[in-house]
Amino acid sequence: MNILVIGSGGREHALVWKIAQSPLANVIYAAPGNSGMDGLATCVSLNSSNHNAVVAFCHEKNIALVVVGPEVPLVEGLVDRLDSENITAFGPSAAAARLEGSKGFTKDLCARYNIPTAAYGRFTEPEMAHAFAIKMGAPIVIKADGLAAGKGVIIAETIAQAHAAIDDILGGQFGEAGAELVIEDFLVGEEASFFALCDGDNILPLATAQDHKQVGEGDTGPNTGGMGAYSPAAVMTDEMTRRTINEIILPTVRGMKEEGHPFRGVFFAGLMITDKGPELIEYNVRFGDPECQVLMMRMKSDIVPALIACAKGGVDKVDMTWHDTSALTVVMAARGYPGNYDKNTEIRRLDQAGQDENTFIFHAGTKKENGKTLATGGRVLNVTAVGENVSAARDRAYAALDQIDWPQGFCRRDIGWRAIKREKE
Ligand code: AMP
Ligand code: GLY
């Protein structure tokens, strides 16, 4: 079958790489894709917000499966449109994508279905928000309700910071996404992510991961899209995974179905493992970037039947096995990211790096020009490796990374530190 992958990041390169190993895949297209996909997929310049153009492309190229990588096209209803054209698509409807697109929607669902999460309030009026913040006390978390590219969450250490964040968000800092805000209790514990596929009724648990959101070593500095990740996450013991499924994921599946918008796609649950157990921080309704890269390296089974089953049903019957290894990915970003950075700097020696079967370099923001590889984005490369534990995967990933010659790039040197500390103990 011909398959179209929507998106251009490292996540989509990893999905294309995995899909290309499927005996079911014939021609793979990526829109817009990136230059790392050369040889695996044909990159096409399609605007995913133009649903007519996507549908016309699918008919023309006889596409049997569309895999939507990022959240924006999901929230915009691309999958609803493809469904109405009888084109099989992986990803939730716009109504179900509100689990990521509206933090208030998710908090209300948690309240109705008894899903453990931080106590909260939803506000559109500054006076009420300020009063609620004073009542709750600091530390406290202020969140823009809508999609804000990972920047809409402020952890206020003091009430003064909370007041400032409320005024910034309701004052329009995030545009429409901040017309409403959620204020919630600060949860204490260790963060982890859990991924599960869902066909609206049933789930297929995938795996756990941890990422490093902050730009600086020791998890310091401003937040980014993620500077590295690894899987599995040791804090997610079998017991915590079981509780996450029973207390968080399955009640969500039931709630979404009962309320008329069954969820089909991947749950990416951001969790805080507190002393009471797992609590939901947030849902994303797509694979994580760079979490997807480590998941794909560990996945042994063909991914294509699992993606199709999310759309068509029977996901719980899909055979899914995993390599008994850990995987770790280190993001190489352009110096200056997440602030301003130079574009079109040259990356050399990429072909020499990461040549063994346990290592793979996914591209996130590169282009090829006159035989040269140029950096075009903030996050540019994901140097990914597997090993018998996180420490071994880490050693391989950094060994490959150190062969890359890109003076205008940087990375964190401590990806995986929590897991590695545990492994040493
Ligand atoms: P989110 O975009 O909702 O995942 O929030 C971004 C980050 O803010 C999370 O990964 C957490 O590190 C932190 N965070 C969000 N909500 C809370 C909370 N209620 N308590 C503690 N930390 C939080
Ligand atoms: N790495 C976090 C995310 O994809 O949202």
Describe the overall structure.
- The chain is globular and about 60 Å long.
- α1 (10-19) runs parallel beside α10 (291-298) and α7 runs antiparallel to α8.
- It contains 13 helices and 23 strands.
- The chain folds into 4 domains: 2-91, Rossmann fold (3-Layer(aba) Sandwich); 125-179, 2-Layer Sandwich (Dna Ligase, domain 1), CATH 3.30.1490.20; 190-317, D-amino Acid Aminotransferase, Chain A, domain 1, CATH 3.30.470; 326-424, Alpha-Beta Complex (Glycinamide Ribonucleotide Synthetase, Chain A, domain 4).
- The longest helix is centred in the middle third of the chain and has 21 residues, at 238-258.
- It has helices at 10-19, 51-60, 71-75, 78-84, 94-101, 103-112, 126-136, 159-170, 238-258, 291-298, 304-312, 390-401, 417-424, and strands at residues 2-7, 28-32, 42-43, 63-68, 89-90, 120-123, 140-144, 153-156, 181-185, 190-199, 203-211, 214-216, 220-223, 228-231, 264-274, 277-284, 326-334, 345-347, 359-363, 366-369, 372-375, 379-387, 409-410.
- Strands 10, 11, 14, 15, 16, 17, 19, 22 and 23 form a 9-stranded antiparallel sheet that branches. A 5-stranded parallel sheet has the order 3-2-1-4-5, sandwiched between helices.
- It is α+β, with helices and mostly antiparallel strands.
- Helix content is 31%, strand content 29%.
- The protein binds adenosine monophosphate and glycine (GLY).
- The site of adenosine monophosphate has 13 residues, from β8, β9 and β16.
Question: Any chance you could write out the topology, listing elements then pairs?
Answer:
Elements: E1 2-7, H1 10-19, E2 28-32, E3 42-43, H2 51-60, E4 63-68, H3 71-75, H4 78-84, E5 89-90, H5 94-101, H6 103-112, E6 120-123, H7 126-136, E7 140-144, E8 153-156, H8 159-170, E9 181-185, E10 190-199, E11 203-211, E12 214-216, E13 220-223, E14 228-231, H9 238-258, E15 264-274, E16 277-284, H10 291-298, H11 304-312, E17 326-334, E18 345-347, E19 359-363, E20 366-369, E21 372-375, E22 379-387, H12 390-401, E23 409-410, H13 417-424
Parallel strand pairs: 1-2, 1-4, 2-3, 4-5
Antiparallel strand pairs: 6-9, 7-8, 7-9, 10-11, 10-15, 11-14, 12-13, 14-17, 15-16, 17-22, 17-23, 18-21, 19-22, 20-21
Helix pairs in contact: 1-10, 7-8
The protein binds adenosine monophosphate and glycine.
Glycine (GLY) is lined by residues 150, 211, 225-226, 284, 288-289, 291.
